[in-house]
Amino acid sequence: MIAELIRGNVDTDSQRLLEQATIIFNENPHKGIQFCIESGIFSNKASSIAKFLQCTSGLSKFAIGQYLATPKDTNQRVLEIFSSQFDYKNTPIDESIRKFLATFRLPGEGDQI
Question: What is the pTM assigned to this prediction?
């Protein structure tokens, strides 16, 4: 289902499901991912989760950062895959870092994870 969502080839019910998943994710990233898995939006594979984080409009950059910063094995694998999807060829390092960091907000010390 994730491929159809990314291409925009979804019916109304699937669109509503994705909107609900986005709301849940933005409130609690881990619950949002669990909702997606249980709803069949995507499988419990790091690559599917990374694709969801990169391609779903409306996701909070703060919530994405919270999810990626969680020190669990699955989250770290998602971070690796998420990071590897960017094309940095022929791009200056400062521009590459800006491009990468524009996709999520790094949690600070005062933020709860």
Answer: 0.82
